[in-house]
Amino acid sequence: MAYVINEDCVACGTCISECPVEAISEGDIYKIDPEVCTECGTCADVCPTGAISLGK
Ligand code: SF4
Asked: Which atom belonging to ligand 1 lies closest to the Cα atom of 44?
């Protein structure tokens, strides 16, 4: 399991510098690498649009 970024992402870049394991990559909508994410939840806490949640 890993956190995922949904279509509410506005590519603001807030989360990318907060991830301690650098699992987030840029794009029209940012992406989290599920192989790298440790489910710490830091990105979800800082996302201004609430676009990041724990995937199923
Ligand atoms: Fe990075 Fe933590 Fe977000 Fe996973 S949950 S992408 S490890 S900040």
From this structure: 3
